[in-house]
Each structure stands twice: as structure tokens, then as C-alpha cells.
Automatic annotation (TrEMBL):
InterPro entries listed in its UniProt record: HAD-like_sf, HAD-SF_hydro_IIA, HAD-SF_hydro_IIA_hyp3, HAD_sf
Keyword Protein transport in record: no
Full protein name: HAD superfamily hydrolase (TIGR01459 family)
Pfam families (UniProt xref): Hydrolase_6 (PF13344), Hydrolase_like (PF13242)
């Protein structure tokens, strides 16, 4: 049964740490959600351990800086982890041995910035690549054409943003790299996903914080990534109605019932709690 709550502070004492998604929970990509900063300030004042777990293809430090620039105090967060950071670490420790990548990025230079500190190279010629790095979406047409060529060459794709869509300002939802990665896999290609809902990144958070799975709460707006990933990891979860699924819940009178119907329709796990926005 999903329990409707008014604030995270109501349930915070049940957990040793609260892990927050970024887009759709803290901000919409450009602007913090109205009550998010005050909610986190209250949680921090109450001694609640907080961390961010984001399906961003960029490094953790860059995301921490973005969050701080929006007015979230860095001391509120014990840890910021991203899917891009997880791949960077695997390359650094040689858990991943591919070294020459064809980059698909939101903006030119993103991949080069991400690679600082590890020995990798980037190429604009698919024939020279060991693999594709799918970290962002700029020119969608270019991305589709590149992945068609990669599939023909049977190259693996490393996807560091498994999200299929992401909320933006004004209630707009935009396609994300995960949509292309899933299409690539459906066409027979090999994809290695980094980030939620895949178990490795949840276990990494547990190790970093030293907290058992059943003492962690994931707060997110994606049933597929945040909520399903938390359930598979043995964490509890709280769903944010005003993020990715904002249109579904905008005029909803019974959020728990609507949420149960949506989970039944999609086949995703139910969260333990639901609240309108982070507050």
C-alpha cells in the first residue's frame, strides 16, 4: 500500500540516509522546485544524512557544482554520485578495457571534459572506435545515424544516462539517451548501462555511506529508474508526483490510487510513499 505524505521530514527518522534524484526532484534543469531548498535545509538541520544519485552522464563534481549554483548548500549532501562517475571509475580501475570511444554528447566537449584523469581517446570515425559513449543528446539525427553505423559494426554502447525522458522547465519532457540505448539493444546491439535502475550504482552508494539497504530511502520521480531500482536493491522509496509524471498527477484527487493504477499498467514496483513535490 502506498502512503501519501506531506513532507520527507515525517518519515526521515525511519532511515539512516535519504538518497535523492536530481532532475524532477531538486530542479527542472534550470530552476529549483519551490520547496526543495527549504526541505533539504530542514532535513540537514535535523541531522539526516543526504546524498544525490543522478543518471547524469557527467562527472559527480560537475553535478555537485550545478546543484550548488542553484542554491543548494554543498554541506547538505554527504555524497553526490552520477552514472557518468561510475563509468569513469570503472575505466580508471580497468574494469572496463575499451579505450577509444565514439562520443554522442549533448554539447561538443562534454566527453573530453568527462574523461579528464583517465586514459581514453575519442574519434569521429566509427571505424576507429572500440565502443560508443552515449552520454547526452544534442543532434538527435546525428545520434541515430551514428548508432545505425555502430550497430552495423557490432560495437558495444556504454550508456551513462539510462533515462528515456527527462523533465524540463515549464512541464516539458525531453527525450534522453536511454531511449536510444534501449532501441539499440532491441535491434540486437550490446549496451552496458550505468546508473539507475541497475543494481551496481545502488550498491556503490551503500558501500560509500556504510548503510544497509533496508535503512535507505530513495526519493525520485521515475518509476522505471528510481522506484524500480530501489525495490530491486532492497531500499524503500518515495515517489515525487510533480516530476516526470507531472501531467498524470496534476489534476489527481487520489494520488495513491492513481499511482497504484499506473504501476499496475506499467508493471513497475510500487513505492512505499508518495508526495506532490520535494518538501
Amino acid at each position: 500500500m502506498v502512503v501519501q505524505i506531506g513532507t520527507l521530514l515525517q518519515i526521515a527518522p525511519r532511515y539512516d540516509a535519504i538518497i535523492l534524484d536530481q532532475w524532477g526532484v531538486l530542479h527542472d534543469g534550470t530552476t529549483p522546485y519551490p520547496a526543495a531548498q527549504s526541505a533539504l535545509a530542514q532535513l540537514h538541520k535535523a541531522g539526516v544524512r543526504l546524498a544525490v544519485l543522478s543518471n547524469s552522464g557527467k562527472r559527480a563534481a560537475l553535478n555537485a557544482a550545478r546543484i550548488e549554483s542553484m542554491g543548494f548548500a554543498p554541506e547538505w549532501f554527504e555524497l553526490v554520485m552520477t552514472s557518468g562517475e561510475a563509468l569513469w571509475q570503472d575505466i580508471q580501475t580497468r574494469a572496463v578495457t575499451d579505450r577509444v570511444f565514439f562520443p554522442i554528447e549533448a554539447a561538443s566537449g562534454d566527453a573530453l571534459s568527462w574523461s579528464d584523469g583517465i586514459e581514453v581517446a575519442f574519434t569521429s570515425e566509427m571505424s576507429r572506435a572500440d565502443a560508443v559513449l552515449l552520454m547526452g543528446l544534442g543532434d538527435a539525427g546525428h545520434a541515430h545515424r551514428a548508432l545505425d553505423e555502430a550497430l552495423a559494426r557490432a560495437l558495444p554502447v556504454y550508456c551513462t544516462n539510462p533515462d528515456r525522458a527527462s523533465p524540463r522547465a515549464g512541464g516539458v519532457t525531453v527525450p534522453s539517451p536511454g531511449a536510444l540505448a534501449h532501441a539499440y539493444a532491441a535491434a540486437g546491439g550490446t549496451v552496458r548501462f550505468y546508473g539507475k535502475p541497475h543494481l551496481a550504482v545502488f550498491r556503490a552508494i551503500e558501500r560509500a555511506l556504510g548503510v544497509a539497504p533496508n535503512r535507505l530511502l530513495m526519493v525520485g520521480d521515475s518509476l522505471e529508474h528510481d522506484i524500480a531500482g530501489a525495490a530491486a536493491a532492497g531500499w524503500h522509496s518515495a515517489f515525487i508526483e510533480g516530476g516526470l509524471h507531472r501531467a498524470t498527477f496534476a489534476a489527481c484527487e487520489d494520488a495513491p490510487a492513481s499511482l497504484q493504477a499506473l504501476c499496475h499498467e506499467t508493471g513497475f514496483a510500487l513505492p512505499d510513499f508518495t508526495l506532490s513535490t520535494l518538501r
